[in-house]
Design goal:
single chain; alpha+beta; Heat Shock Protein 90; 2 domains; 10 helices; elongated
């Protein structure tokens, strides 16, 4: 017996050593670290994009306001020059050519500017001035060709447009009135904003290339920082895993000794039954703790194979049918018989998970109640629902029912037995198989547990 115990101890130590060697690089740690790095990079990248967008909008608005004020001043200068010449709406007098050298009329050759004034010299430096009728049709231009831009038929007061050479201009419209305050037409002044446009395009390229590059750098830095930040958590998790595995292992030896004592010594029947019951609870607790430790360590993944959910659900129903009958609870199932739904995983774990959920439903369903198991599929997912008409779970307790040793009602849970690890084990198994577990419950109206597992194939029988 001692030799077997020593051998068992050696094997368990090896398993625990495997768990500990695996923990520093486990998928849970790396997954959490990756999520932190991605979140950090995403937040920083979004911040850079938002700041760049705001800077872009502010620069455009500021420059547009500055250009509009500049063009308004320039237009006012030309308005003062034109006002004495404006007599009839939409028409210019012959003397206008004298007051405004370089004016270019429609369907006429443009005159060469001879004025050396500072205002007129601006027209050679990217500025544009022309006269429009009340309908937005061009009458004449000053210092430039009349057809550099299309007519402004919609009477837009401020807009950007390209000239015939593809150069971007910002145009500003000003109304011109004659002596009786009647509208003569419009004076349209403009300025080239091609340089600003080129600058903004460069800014867009900088943002388009710089932000992804910054996110990659930030993501790398986030990965490194997350590793530093999570190192104490990883160490604590490792110690917790070691404690769970060690505690479960160390409990096995005294339990075995107690069983031997009970079986080989003369103890009154009532005391023997009490001891056997407590020993059985300790055995179940030890097995559950070891299973949880191995599930969280990921050592079970190598045993995965294709599993037919139909068969597993049917086996669980068959095993628990006597339990349901003894509890006077109606247990039924709805399992498709035309096709079998396959998942990739550990069959004993899936069986244990369903056994825990269905047995819990039976335990907490009063006499005359009903427990239904339903198997369906949706979007390449197998869906198993366990619905009961039991006592239900208070809404405040639902977020905690998967915690280890948590009991919604301690007295009631103690009477029904169990170690308080059943739902924690079920959730760990489902998460190990990349699935989800959803709960809906109402007090005195029953609960519904929904297990969602990814399917690998659907084979017709």
């Amino acid at each position: 017996m001692n030799h077997e115990a020593a051998k068992d101890t050696k094997e368990e130590r090896k398993k625990i050593g495997k768990i500990q060697s695996w923990i520093p690089n486990n998928s849970l740690f790396n997954h959490s670290r990756f999520k932190l790095a991605i979140t950090y990079a995403g937040v920083m990248g979004s911040t850079l994009l938002i700041c760049g967008y705001i800077a872009h909008i502010v620069m455009i608005q500021a420059f547009t306001r500055t250009v509009d004020r500049e063009l308004q001043i320039l237009g006012k200068v030309f308005e003062d020059k034109l006002k004495p010449e404006l007599k009839i709406p939409g028409e210019l007098s012959i003397t206008t050519q004298k007051s405004l050298p370089g004016i270019c009329f429609k369907q006429q050759a443009c005159l060469v500017m001879k004025s050396e004034s500072a205002v007129m010299s601006l027209l050679a430096e990217g500025y544009y001035v022309r006269l429009l009728t009340t309908k937005g049709e061009a009458i004449a231009a000053i210092g430039n060709k009349l057809d550099e831009f299309p007519d402004n038929m919609k009477i837009n007061h401020s807009y950007d447009i390209r000239n015939r050479r593809g150069e971007l201009y910002h145009l500003h419209l000003m109304p011109l009135k004659i002596n009786n305050n009647q509208l003569w037409g419009y004076l349209q002044v403009g300025r080239s904003v091609q340089r600003l446009n080129d600058y903004m395009n460069s800014l867009h390229w900088l943002l388009g290339l710089g932000v992804p590059a910054s996110m990659i750098i930030i993501g790398g830095a986030g990965w490194w920082l997350a590793g530093l930040a999570m190192r104490p958590i990883q160490k604590s998790y490792q110690q917790l895993q070691k404690f769970t595995a060690d505690a479960a292992h160390e409990l096995r030896t005294p339990i075995t000794s107690l069983q031997t004592i009970v079986e080989t010594n003369s103890i009154n029947q009532e005391t023997q039954k009490a001891l056997e019951r407590q020993i059985k609870r300790l055995v179940t607790l030890t097995q559950d703790l070891l299973l949880l430790s191995r599930l969280e360590s990921g050592l079970q993944a190598a045993k995965w194979r294709q599993i037919c959910l139909n068969d597993v659900v049917a086996d669980v129903e068959e095993e628990l049918m006597p339990v349901a009958m003894n509890a006077e609870v109606l247990l039924s199932s709805n399992i498709p018989d035309q096709s079998c739904f396959y998942i990739q995983g550990n069959e004993s774990q899936i069986y244990r998970m369903l056994l825990n959920l269905v047995s819990n439903a039976i335990k907490y369903t009063p006499v005359g109640g009903e427990v239904k198991i339903n198997l369906t599929t949706n979007d390449n997912q197998g869906i198993i629902t366990i619905k009961d008409t039991g006592i239900g779970i208070p809404a405040a307790d639902i977020p905690h029912i998967f915690d280890r040793f948590y009991r919604v009602n301690a007295d009631r849970s103690r009477n029904t037995g169990g170690s308080g690890l059943g739902l924690a084990i079920a959730l760990a198994i489902i998460q190990t198989h990349k699935g989800k577990l959803e709960v809906q419950s109402h007090v005195d109206h029953g609960s519904t547990f929904t297990v969602i597992l990814p399917l690998v194939s659907k084979v017709n029988r």
